[in-house]
Design goal:
Helices cover about 0% and strands about 30% of the residues. The protein is mainly beta and about 130 residues long. The chain folds into two domains: about 10-60, no CATH class; about 65-133, no CATH class. The strands form five sheets. A two-stranded antiparallel sheet has the order 1-4. A two-stranded antiparallel ribbon has the order 2-3. The chain has a two-stranded antiparallel sheet with strand order 5-10.
């Protein structure tokens, strides 16, 4: 059976209808002031400058019902610059609550995404087992 592409988003061209939530409201879609610039807009925590750390801020991707999909994968091309003591992870709402989901080949650090990526990196998550967001 051939793979079936359910959704593709180019977040350099639009905000993808992602949902910003959390404690500070610092997620924004804009041209970044740091990192790989000149490649269009992106989602970031305070894309115009330093972000507030030690908070819980989320960016949700509304995926819909995946129960009929044999092996749904989420692949993300991203870069990150995360201050010491902070981290980033992907969580999946499996219908009973949020749980951290490890990328197929693991996070670059046991804590998740930390420090600075060397440019854009690609990670994939197996979403088998549920969740709407």
């Amino acid at each position: 059976m051939a793979p079936l592409l359910l959704l593709t988003l180019d977040l350099s061209l639009s905000d993808g209808a992602l949902i910003e939530a959390g404690q500070t409201g610092q997620w924004g879609w804009a041209d970044p002031a740091a990192g790989p610039t000149g490649l269009g807009s992106c989602w970031g925590t305070n894309p115009d400058g330093p972000y507030l750390h030690d908070t819980i801020d989320t960016l949700e991707i509304p995926l819909g019902d995946l129960s009929g999909v044999v092996r749904p994968l989420l692949t993300v091309r991203h870069w990150y610059e995360i201050a010491g003591g902070d981290l980033g992870v992907l969580e999946l709402d499996d219908g009973t609550g949020w749980r951290v989901l490890d990328p197929v080949f693991g996070y670059p650090d046991p804590a998740g995404f930390v420090g600075v990526s060397l440019g854009y990196v690609v990670h994939a998550w197996d979403l088998s087992g549920g969740g709407a967001t």
